[in-house]
Amino acid sequence: MLTPSSNTVLEPVCAKMAAALPDTSVHFSRFTVTRIAMDESALGQFNTAPMVGAAKLLADAKVDVIAWNGTSASWLGLDSDHALVSEIESETGIKAATCVLSMMDALYALGAKTYALVTPYTGDVQSKIVDNMKALGYECSAEVHFDISDNFSFGTVPEKQIENALRTVCAAKPDAVIGLCTNLAGAPVVAQVEHDTSVPILDSVTLTMWGALARIGAATDGLRPWGPKLAALPTKTLEVTQ
């Protein structure tokens, strides 16, 4: 997993997920990300050079797949993740995946046309994500954003606040709800909210694990405690770089 430097959520969650999967371990390499915003300095944090450098360190551990466990392509555009996957695979010879490309695969597998969005981001970042998704053919039925830009602070948002936001947007009856941010601790509440609302909920950390497993043809059903509907989706026909 390629991890934003100020992220405190995804590593422990991924470790818990991997502990329940047979013959699976998860390893991490960080690069600097401290703020999510639309200015040049913040956007520049996602230049591929440091990301590929971090990927090369993971390659030394002879991992089977390298995944970008971050959501930057949702506002930068999918081309940024396509380029990253291509560079990682070219430089390391190891298969690569990303959270946002896995999100697109999951929406495709669900047959979704509408979605609802929960993020910790500021309004301008949220608007850019919604605009990008609209250009891809997906309509936003409802959204909640917590108006935070400091990446570390995303990880301090209370679990109950995240759960309430997910339940609020589920009321719009979208085809799927996306909890978008890998430093937002929503994964533990997904199963209960899905059970209560019957709406598929795609948590970013769970999506990244799902996409990484799918990329190497591994079973994803072990992710059911974190995303029952996601874990049950077929993956054999999906391509992370579609």
Estimate what percentage of residues fall within beta strands.
Answer: 5-15%
> What gross morphology would you assign?
globular
Strand tally, please? 8
Major sheet, described briefly?
4 strands, parallel
Q: Fraction of residues in helices?
A: 40-55%
Compressed to H and E, one letter per element, the order equals EHEHHEHHEHEHEHHEHEHH
Report mean pLDDT, rounded to a whole number: 96
By DSSP (H or I, 4+ residues per run), the number of helices equals: 12
For the termini, the CA-CA separation is 21 Å
Rg calculated over all Cα atoms: 16 Å
Which strands sit side by side, in order, in the main sheet?
Answer: 6-5-7-8
CATH-defined architecture of the largest domain = 3-Layer(aba) Sandwich
pLDDT < 50 stretches? none
- Number of domain modules: 2
What do you see in this structure?
The chain has 242 residues and is of the alpha/beta class. It folds into two domains: 2-100 and 205-221, Rossmann fold (3-Layer(aba) Sandwich); 102-202, Rossmann fold, CATH 3.40.50. It contains twelve helices and eight strands. It has helices at 10-19, 40-43, 48-59, 73-76, 78-92, 99-110, 123-135, 151-154, 159-170, 190-197, 204-215, 228-231; strands spanning 2-4, 29-31, 65-68, 95-98, 114-119, 139-145, 176-179, 201-203. Strands 6-5-7-8 form a four-stranded parallel sheet, sandwiched between helices. It has a two-stranded parallel ribbon with strand order 1-2. The protein has a two-stranded parallel ribbon with strand order 3-4. β5, α7 and β6 (139-145) form a beta-alpha-beta unit. α3 runs parallel beside α5 (78-92) and α6 crosses α11. It is globular and about 45 Å long.
